[in-house]
TrEMBL record:
Species for this entry: Shewanella fidelis
Domain of life: Bacteria
Pfam families the UniProt entry points to: Sdh_cyt
Function according to Swiss-Prot or TrEMBL: Membrane-anchoring subunit of succinate dehydrogenase (SDH).
This protein's name: Fumarate reductase cytochrome b subunit
Keywords: Heme, Iron, Membrane, Metal-binding, Transmembrane, Transmembrane helix
Subcellular localization, as worded in the UniProt entry: Membrane
Transmembrane segments: 26-44, 76-97, 124-147, 167-186, 207-226
């Protein structure tokens, strides 16, 4: 016969289990949203590789230029969307921290396991932990910048990258966010049974990491080249 203590403990266990399941779903949902956004974002950014005018028109489209009498977009939309993304990132991070090794002994145990057991998914999880730790500090800085100074364009973005030395942030942020997002999408697909082909999904994740790194670095290099040719004060680009 169950005692009151046993009943209370069982109830707490059920509540904790239900909360853990909801937290997993929210972590996965926010992770999918952020991962898909990154895929789109890096492709929009890479439009600079087709010239200043191409990037300019992409920016005007994203900022609602078609709704403006002058054809120019509304930078406020960038601030609003960046604020929304910051909230999503913080929610995702809060749920992800539940599984983050909090003690040095746990890190040592994980490293020890990786050296003894050659398990691909364990390595993927490890690099997600490392990249997630880096992103915890870098992503809010990037998004705060976009919230505070939302004006973007071929010249203004190049000014931020080159003259304001934002390339120092992006050169670390780019590999961390690409690795974290693509491996994260892989783990979500496996966890929720979207596909049972782990080997194929891992290969796809690795291909996407290399591909996104290439277009990201090429775009960053293009901004650096444009910025080096500009003189202060910077005038916004007009086609």
């Amino acid at each position: 016969m169950r005692t009151l203590t046993d009943t209370t403990a069982l109830f707490k266990q059920k509540v904790a289990s239900a909360w853990s399941a909801k937290a997993d779903r929210l972590q996965s949902a926010t992770g999918i949203l952020l991962g898909c956004f990154l895929l789109v974002h890096l492709h929009f950014e890479s439009s600079i590789l087709f010239g200043k005018e191409a990037f300019y028109h992409v920016v005007q489209f994203l900022e609602g230029g078609m709704f403006s009498e002058t054809g120019h977009g509304y930078p406020l939309l960038t601030s609003i969307f960046s604020t929304f993304l910051l909230v999503v990132v913080l929610v995702h991070a809060a749920f992800a921290l539940r599984r983050f090794p909090a003690q040095i002994g746990q890190w040592r145990a994980l490293r020890g396991q990786m050296q003894v057991v050659n398990h691909s998914d364990t390595r993927v999880w490890f690099w997600q932990l490392v990249s997630g730790f880096i992103l915890f500090f870098l992503v809010p800085v990037h998004l705060y910048t976009m919230i505070a100074t939302p004006e973007i364009g071929p010249h203004l973005s190049a000014e931020r990258v080159y003259h304001d030395n934002a390339w120092l942030l992006y050169i670390v942020l780019l590999p961390a966010v690409v690795v974290h997002a693509m491996f994260g999408l892989y783990r979500v697909a496996v966890k929720w049974g979207i596909s049972a082909n782990r080997t194929g999904l891992r290969k796809l994740a690795h291909i996407l990491v290399v591909y996104l790194m290439v277009i990201g670095l090429l775009s960053l290099g293009q901004y650096m080249m444009i910025g080096s040719e500009l003189t202060l004060p910077i005038e916004p680009f007009r086609p």
